[in-house]
Structure formats: structure tokens, C-alpha cells
Amino acid sequence: MTQVVNQDLAVSAAQVVASGSPLYPPTSRQSAAQKIKRTPSDHPATKEQREEILAAPGFGKFFSDHVVRATWLKGQGWQPAELVAADASAGGLSINALHYGQSIFEGLKAYRHPDGGIYTFRPEANALRFQRSAYRLALPPVPTDLFIGALEVLVQADQAWVSSEPDQAFYLRPLEFGSEPALGVKPSDHVTYVLMGSPVGSYFANGVSPVKVWISGEFVRAAPGGTGEAKCAGNYAASLLAQSEAAAQGCDQVVWIDANERKYIEEMGGMNLFFVYGKGAQAKIVTPKLTGTLLPGVTRDSLLTLAADLGYQVEEVKITVDQWREGCASGEITESFACGTAAVITPVGQVDSKDFGTWTIGDGTPGEITMKLRQALVDIQTGRAVDHHNWMHRLV
Ligand SMILES: Cc1ncc(COP(=O)(O)O)c(C=O)c1O
């Protein structure tokens, strides 16, 4: 099996260590979960309320009964985590995160498998990215044991919210933010970590139908030295205007290009992009190289491995918008798709822009390799295929 993965994540972990950002003594994972105090909610949803929500959950609109919460205090470190009712307060209007955006998050999903267990996908990778984001935003890293222990405790408590319907999952949202009530611009001395859960269906209302994308000429998502590779709140706030512009142009999603030369493709909304060159067994799967301004997606990383497992050539390179358009015109590029935890893989059918033209990818319908990779990944995540890479982590 070709091992294409983990280099970026590993290098960056080393950077976190080298940076001198505080590290916390590792505990055993089991003891991390055991140490979380459980105070069950006294007002959980009734069975009827929960079933009504699970019948049509949408995406991220409803939340389960509990959250896991921990506080970090300067000079004292992480205080014991606790499971509490989901609506327990975590700070007032003066907290740093609301004013200065010292806030990061993660996103991963839990799936109910045919063996009855509830599993999540590569949580160590999300824990590591969370630590890297924390470093960039001057927040203390949440130790991996606490990160995974919290997943186990929340999913155990709220397992009735994990559907076994095919297109549904339980979305897990770790969030860390500066919660010191103070208006000085400095790293917060009081930090809160919260893990919440939300039952979800398809991310896009139309399921896996191809999206039309708008290349943003005016707005920039991330510049070298900025926060592009961190999963921080401000990146998403700054993306909303361009997303609205895309919608006004009749497109579903925005595609970002690089800030310097305004020609290299970076990513799409909250997803990484892939391009398929050629067809059949000879096809090559290409994705933009991580330059520091893209979010290093866990799905992107996993697909590089799965594509190689399936016998395709894989490549991480800088690719320009002109190459994308010309490759589609010549037939060299046969498919394009976007990938991320929320929507897994979404085919890209059409591209529109002010400066680069308008074109269709292939015949605008989902590509064969796109759908093959999607199926291969979903089968592992939902427990229907052998997990050769040990990516699945049993939570309950
Ligand atoms: C900006 C951005 N790019 C890419 C991704 C895909 O990352 P992942 O595959 O880890 O969900 C996400 C979602 O987390 C994102 O927000």
C-alpha cells in the first residue's frame, strides 16, 4: 500500500513542538475519558422530539443533549473536563473570542456501523490539526487524549442521537475560544474548550449532484503568513461575502485563488479540490499542493491514500486556473471534485468567473472516478469495507 499521507500533518506537529508552545503530559486515553465528570442534563429532548428531528435533521441545525466542556487557565493549564447540558453557559458578551476572534474549531463525524458500534474517522488527525490551529491563534493546544476522551464521553451520553440511516451521521464540533472577559488585545488567560454534537443529513440539499463554482477574483481567502491553514473562525467570516457573490452569480460555491499571483487554485468554500486527468486505470488524481494558505483536509489526505490504493497515480502540485480551463477544453482533465468531512465528495460540474471564463467539466455530470472514490471512502466510514489503514476509531 502506498503511504502518501501524513507528512504535512507530521511536519506541522513537529513545528508545534519546536515552537515551544506548551505541551501537556500525555495520559492514557481511557483515563482521559474516565476523568470527565458527568452531570447529565435535567431537560434532555423527549424520545418524540428526538425522533422528529432525526427524521429530517438538515445540517448543523439541531444539537444533542450534552456538551463536553473544559477550561484552561493561564499558569494552571487544563482543568478537569465535564459533561454538562448543551445549553450551559460558556461566557458573556465581553469575551475575547467575540471581539477579537480568538476562536478555532474542528469537524468530524460519528457513524453507526453494522456491528452496532459507533465509530469516528481519523480523530488523531483532527486533534493534530486542532493543535496546529491553536498554535497559530495563540491558544493552548487541547491534548489529543482530552480531544478523543471528550468524543467518547459525548457520543456515549448522546448515542440515541446517532442515526443508522444511510445518509445520516452525528457531526462532532470541537470548539476552542478565548473566554476571558476583558477587552485588552492579547491572548486570553481564560480559554474554553467545548465539544458539541449535531445529527446531520446531507450537507448540500441536492445530495451528490454536481455544483457550479464561482472563482473569486476580488476577494482573497488567505495570504502567505496569514491564517489560511488554521481552522479559525475569522477565515469563515471573511469568506461569506465571496460566497454571497457566488450565489448572486448563480453558483453554489466559491473557489479561492492565491493572494500573490492570483492564478493558482487553492480550495472551494469549506472543501479541498481534486482534478482527474485521463480516464480508467491510467487516470491521475491531482490536488493543489499545501502551501500554507490551504486548509490541510483530512478527507484530502485520506483520498490521496485511497486513490493510490486503487492504483491511480496521485500528485500534489500547484495548478493554475488557466490549466484547469485548458485541460477541460482539451479533454485532458476529465473530472473535478471537492472533498471535506461535511459533504465527503461533491462533483464540480461547471465553473464561472469574471476573469477566467466559463466552462463545463466533462459533460457536467458526476465523474466515474469521483463516484468510485466517494464510495470507497464512505464504505470505510460506515463500516461496509475493510479499514486497511486503521482509520476508524470506536467511540462506543
Ligand atoms: C476551508 C476548508 N477547506 C477544506 C476542508 C476539508 O477538511 P476536512 O476534509 O478535514 O473536513 C474544510 C473543512 O473542514 C474547510 O473548512
Task: Please write out the topology.
Blueprint: H1 7-18, H2 29-34, E1 37-38, H3 47-55, E2 66-73, E3 77-78, E4 82-85, H4 96-100, E5 103-105, E6 108-112, E7 118-121, H5 123-136, H6 144-157, E8 169-178, E9 190-200, E10 211-215, H7 233-237, H8 240-248, E11 253-257, E12 265-268, E13 272-277, E14 284-288, H9 298-309, E15 313-317, H10 321-330, E16 333-340, E17 344-353, E18 359-360, H11 368-381, E19 392-394
Parallel strand pairs: 1-4, 10-11, 10-17, 14-15
Antiparallel strand pairs: 2-3, 2-4, 2-9, 5-8, 6-7, 6-8, 7-19, 8-9, 11-12, 13-14, 13-16, 16-17, 17-18
- Give the assembly state of these chains: single chain
CATH architecture assignment of the largest domain = 2-Layer Sandwich
Strand content: 25-35%
> Helix and strand succession?
HHEHEEEHEEEHHEEEHHEEEEHEHEEEHE
Q: Mean pLDDT, rounded to whole units?
A: 92
Biggest β-sheet strands, sense, barrel: 10 strands, mixed
